[in-house]
Automatic annotation (TrEMBL):
Protein name according to UniProt: Polysaccharide pyruvyl transferase domain-containing protein
Location of the Polysaccharide pyruvyl transferase domain: 14-271
InterPro entries, per the entry: Polysacch_pyruvyl_Trfase
Organism: Hyunsoonleella aestuarii
A Pfam family this chain is assigned to: PS_pyruv_trans
Length: 325
């Protein structure tokens, strides 16, 4: 039996990461259902703590100084995968710095790596591309399924097989069964990254939610923006540590207004309308599915189009996996 290890998660920082995880787990199991495989999940969270308290000032001083590399524990590096799967936006300088030990472990061990439905950069500067490529040129990068054309053009050249695909969260309607909620027609406001706002839709009820569970008890926000942080957090109608709660809310929303790309993707894939309010490079995933207008007005998804894209992506996963069989 082939052992596939998916390293992802980090839900408390952004519950939208769970939507990626749900989609990845579904698509791996669906694409490889005819193969003798086991899909295992390990979280990426601890390396962020290691980086903060060992590298960043003043955290490293307050925590008693830096640990030696050999004293840092990373569960991922105690596995023996036949295939490593990574998702999300990991081709940027910060991600590589946080996961430096892990990336060098992949280089040393030469385990085959599939980056699935993500892999975007942060600003696509020449400096970022040079820093990131220094790792990925040495990794056994057998497959890359991008979620937007810009990421595909910049990073697909490092993989043995590259495919211009879609975001993993477009598999949510396959991975999760929603329930009907007993709530009057409502719109959702999810704004975590840009300035606080309220977007109305007639007289419909507004439900304000956050993707960042850490904002509820954030020492950093308390020090930097005491009253603004408390005021913002107190305006949320709902925050949960369970992704399914968000999916049920998005699936039943009349319209979702958000600066979180995966709040929009979740709403779209369950048949709803949504508008996106930011300029992040992460949003190129909407252009990949013909939704450039999402930045200007509420839009809905062409479900026939997306189903064809999903089937093509499952076939691409099988083609990449066949390299290790």
């Amino acid at each position: 039996m082939k052992q596939i290890f998916y390293f992802g998660h980090c839900w408390a920082d952004n519950v939208g990461n769970a939507f990626i995880d749900y989609g990845i787990n579904y698509s791996l199991k669906e694409a490889l259902k005819e193969y003798d495989v086991q899909v295992n999940n390990v979280s990426n969270v601890q390396p962020y703590n290691n980086y903060k308290f060992n590298q960043k000032f003043p955290y490293n001083l307050l925590s008693g100084g830096r640990k030696k590399k050999e004293d840092i524990f990373d569960l991922r590096m105690h596995t023996k995968p036949d295939l490593v799967v990574l998702g999300g936006s990991l081709f940027d300088v910060f991600w590589c710095k946080v996961h430096d030990l892990f990336l060098n472990w992949l280089i040393e061990k030469q385990y085959p790596v599939l980056v699935l439905g993500g892999g975007g950069g942060n600003d696509y500067s020449l400096e970022e591309l040079a820093f990131v490529s220094a790792y990925w040129k040495k990794i056994n990068f057998i497959g890359y399924i991008a979620r937007d054309e810009k990421a595909f053009a910049n990073f697909g050249k490092y993989a043995k097989i590259a495919y211009s695909g879609i975001d993993n969260a477009f598999f949510l309607n396959n991975a999760f069964n929603t329930v009907k909620l007993d709530i009057e027609p409502y719109v959702i406001n999810t704004f975590d990254l840009t300035y606080p706002r309220v977007v109305k839709d007639g007289s419909k009820k507004i439900i304000k939610i956050s993707h960042r569970l850490l904002d509820i008890d954030s020492f950093r926000l308390f020090l930097k923006r005491r009253f603004k942080a408390f005021k913002t957090v107190s305006t949320y109608d709902y925050v949960s540590d369970y992704p399914d709660d968000y999916l049920n809310l998005y699936a039943n929303s009349y319209v979702t207004h958000s600066d979180r790309v995966h709040a929009c993707v979740a709403t779209l894939i369950f048949g709803g309308k949504t508008q996106y309010y930011d300029k992040s490079d992460r949003s190129y995933l909407f252009d990949r599915v013909n939704l450039s207008e999402i930045r200007n007005k509420p839009v809905s998804l062409d479900m026939d189009f997306i189903e064809k894209e999903k089937q093509s992506q499952l076939e691409a996963i099988r083609k990449i996996f066949n390299q290790i069989c």
